[in-house]
Write a structure and sequence with these properties.
- This protein is α/β, with parallel strands linked by helices and 356 residues long.
- Helices cover 39% and strands 16% of the residues.
- It has 14 helices and 13 strands.
- The protein has a seven-stranded parallel β-sheet, sandwiched between helices. A six-stranded parallel β-sheet has the order 10-9-8-11-12-13, with helices on both faces.
- Helix 1 crosses helix 14 and helix 8 packs across helix 13 (314-324).
C-alpha cells in the first residue's frame, strides 16, 4: 500500500509522540512518503532508506495549507493509495482517501480554555477533517462519544486507536537502576489548564500537610508552555511560600523516568482528558498513581492497580493520597498488557486497507 503520511506534527506534544511511535510500524509495512518541515528532518533520518521524505515550509492549519498547498506535493499525494495524518489538518486538493485523527475535543467541552473565536476555529477544523475523511481515528471510547455528541459525523466511521507508553520510555525505565528507594515526593506532570485539575491537587496537598503527611509536591512541565489558561492557579503558585512545592521546568526523558521511579505517587487530578498518559508512564516505572474518577480514566485504567478519587473533591483526594502512601510499589510484571503502539498501528493499517 502506498501511504502518504503528514509528519509535520512531530515534536508537538502528545500528538507528536503518538505519530513518532506509530510511524515505525507504518513505514515497516507500507510504501510510505513522509512530509515534514526542515526542523523535523533529523527525526526522520532513520527512515531515509525505507521511505521517501519530502520537505515543506507550509505550516499545519495555515491559509496556505487550506487554499494554496503546492501542486507539486498534492500530485505526489494523489499518486498514493491514501493520505494519513495524526491530527485533523488536511491540505487542499487531495483526491485519494483521507484518514485523520481527532484525539479529543477538550476545547469544545471545557469553557474558558480559549476564546469564542478560538472555539469556532477549532470546531471548523474538526468538522472539516470529518467531512474530508474516509475514517476518523481517536484515542478512547470517551473521545469517540464526545465527537459524536459535538460534531456531525455524517455516517463516517470512528475507529479507536489507543495511546500507549513509548518504547523509548520503557527502555529508559528498564535501563535505570531497579530497587532504588522511594522518596516522599508526589509528582504532577502537565500544564496549568483548568481541565488538568491542579488547583484541586494544591488544595489536597495543603490538607495533607495539615494532617502531618511528610511529602513534597513536584510539578513537572515545560515552563514556556506551562502557564496557559488558568491564571488563578498560576498566580497562586507564583505567590506560594511552601518550600515543599517544587517546579522542575523542562526536563529530559531520562530525568522524567527518574522522577517517576523515585516518587511515592503520581497524582493526575484531571477534570477532562482524551486519554491521559502520565499515570501509565508512572505505573511502568513501578510507581503508584491516584487519579480522578472521570469516565476516560475509568475506561483506560480498568484492570490497572490505580487509586481513584472523586473528581474535583480535594478532601477525598487528600484521603486517597494518605492511603496510597502506604501501598507497596507497583509490580511492573503484573501490569495488564492492554496497550501498545504496535497494536495501534495494526488497527490503523488494517482500517485503511479495508477501506481501499
Amino acid at each position: 500500500m502506498k501511504l502518504f503520511i503528514d509528519c509535520r506534527m512531530l515534536g508537538s506534544g502528545g500528538i507528536g509522540t503518538y505519530l513518532e511511535n506509530v510511524l515505525e510500524f507504518l513505514v515497516k509495512e507500507n510504501d510510505c512518503t513522509l512530509l515534514c518541515t526542515s526542523s523535523q528532518i533529523s527525526k526522520l533520518e532513520i527512515y531515509k532508506s525505507s521511505a521517501s521524505i519530502i520537505q515543506t515550509s507550509i505550516k499545519t492549519f495555515s491559509l496556505k495549507e487550506l487554499f494554496f498547498f503546492p501542486s507539486s506535493i498534492t500530485k505526489i499525494i494523489n499518486k498514493c493509495d491514501a493520505f494519513y495524518t495524526p491530527y485533523c489538518n488536511v491540505p487542499c486538493d487531495i483526491k485519494v482517501p483521507v484518514f485523520t485523527t481527532i484525539h479529543d475535543i477538550v476545547f469544545l467541552d471545557i469553557p474558558g480554555l480559549t476564546s469564542k473565536t478560538g472555539i469556532l476555529i477549532r470546531k471548523f477544523f474538526y468538522q472539516r477533517a470529518i467531512n474530508k475523511s474516509k475514517v476518523i481515528f481517536t484515542v478512547s471510547q470517551f473521545s469517540a462519544d464526545r465527537i459524536k455528541e459535538k460534531l456531525k459525523l455524517k455516517n463516517k466511521k470512528l475507529v479507536i486507536t489507543y495511546n500507549s507508553v513509548p518504547k523509548w520510555f520503557l527502555e529508559n525505565a528498564a535501563s535505570q537502576k531497579s530497587g532504588q528507594s522511594k522518596d516522599n515526593s508526589i509528582v504532577f506532570v502537565g500544564n496549568i489548564k483548568k481541565h488538568k485539575g491542579l488547583s484541586v491537587l494544591l488544595d489536597a496537598f495543603e490538607l495533607c500537610k495539615k494532617n502531618r503527611l511528610d511529602a513534597k509536591l513536584v510539578i513537572i512541565g515545560n515552563e514556556k508552555n506551562f502557564r496557559s489558561g488558568d491564571d488563578e492557579t498560576a498566580q497562586r503558585l507564583q505567590q506560594t511560600q511552601d518550600q515543599n512545592i517544587i517546579f522542575t521546568g523542562k526536563i529530559t526523558d531520562e530525568q522524567l523516568c527518574q522522577y517517576y521511579k523515585k516518587a511515592k505517587l503520581l497524582v493526575q487530578p484531571s477534570l477532562y482528558e482524551g486519554f491521559g498518559m502520565p499515570p501509565m508512564e508512572a505505573l511502568s516505572c513501578g510507581t503508584n498513581v491516584v487519579i480522578s474518577d472521570i469516565p476516560v480514566f475509568k475506561e483506560i485504567y480498568e484492570g490497572f492497580p490505580v487509586t481513584f478519587f472523586e473528581c474535583g473533591n480535594s478532601e477525598n483526594l487528600a484521603e486517597k493520597i494518605t492511603q496510597a502512601f502506604t501501598l507497596p510499589d507497583v509490580d511492573i510484571s503484573k501490569l495488564p498488557q492492554k496497550y501498545s503502539f504496535e497494536k495501534t498501528s495494526q488497527i490503523i493499517i488494517q482500517t485503511i486497507r479495508g477501506c481501499l
